[in-house]
Every structure is written in structure tokens, then in C-alpha cells.
Amino acid sequence: MGTETESLTVRLKGFCHMLSFRCGFSVAGLITKQLKQHAMSHKQIFYSDKYDDDKFEYRHVMLPKDIAKRVPKTHLMSETEWRNLGVQQSQGWVHYMIHQPEPHILLFRRPLPQSQ
Predict the structure, then answer these.
(1) Distance of alpha carbon 35 from its chain centroid, rounded?
(2) Would you say 93 and 112 are in contact if contact means Cβ atoms under 8 Å apart?
(3) Domain layout of the chain by residue ranges
(4) Residue 26 binned pLDDT confidence (cut-offs 50, 70, 90)
């Protein structure tokens, strides 16, 4: 797990220990397990190599099932939406198409830099 997740785990364990003492049951194990599953899901996101045509650079991102079920079916996602799913890529990428047979594969593109 990354440092940010480890830090969150330590803080949550402290909180859960206090909660366990007050409530009489342990939630630390459950939360730690959920954090680990969350971290593993994000490691399972697959990023294709980039490819291009004369106007755009493209890539596709394949999501694991547990994340794919949170992809909206009614619209293309904003950058905030796909980042909230755990997709990590540089700025400028746009979710431009939904491929209905494979909704777990997100299709992205961004304009190629203009030649001077």
C-alpha cells in the first residue's frame, strides 16, 4: 500500500481502537480489510499504451469489475468522475466514447500538440 493509505490505516486503527473500547466490538479489522481491497483494486486498473492519429492521442483504461460497476451508464464522465474511480493519468485526457459491449473499458483521447 502507498504511504497515504498506510497513514490513513494507522489513523483509522487508532479511531477504531477507541470505538471498540466504547462499543464493545472491533471494527479495525473490517476497515483495514476494506482499505486493502480498495488499494488492490486500484493496482488492477490496466492502462494501454498510447496510440495516435493526425489529431488525437488515445489510450484505453480497463477497470476491474468492482470499480466498473460504478461507471455511469447514462453519460461520459468528467475528469473529476473518472479520477474519483481511481483512474490516474496526466491532465488533458477526455472520456470520449462508451463502447457498449465492454463498458469496463474507458476510452480516452486528448489533442496532439500543435506543430510550430
Answers:
(1) 13
(2) no
(3) 46-111
(4) low
Which residue is listed with cell 474519483?
84
Q: What angle do CA 35, 33, 47 make, to 5 degrees?
A: 50
The CATH homologous superfamily for domain 46-111 is Cyclin-dependent kinase, regulatory subunit (3.30.170.10)
Give the type of residue at 56.
F
How is residue 114 written as a grid cell?
Answer: 500543435
Neighbours of 87 (CB within 10 A): 20
- pTM of the entire structure? 0.63
Closest by Cα among 101, 112, 100 to 59: 112
CA 92/CA 111 separation, integer angstroms: 8
Which residue in 53, 40, 59 sits closest to 105, CA to CA?
A: 59
Q: pLDDT digits over 32-44, tens only?
A: 444 444 445 556 9
Q: Measure Cα distances from 92 to 63, 87, 98, 99, 101 in Å.
A: 20, 13, 18, 21, 26
**Residue 41 contacts residue 64 (beta carbons within 8 Å):** yes
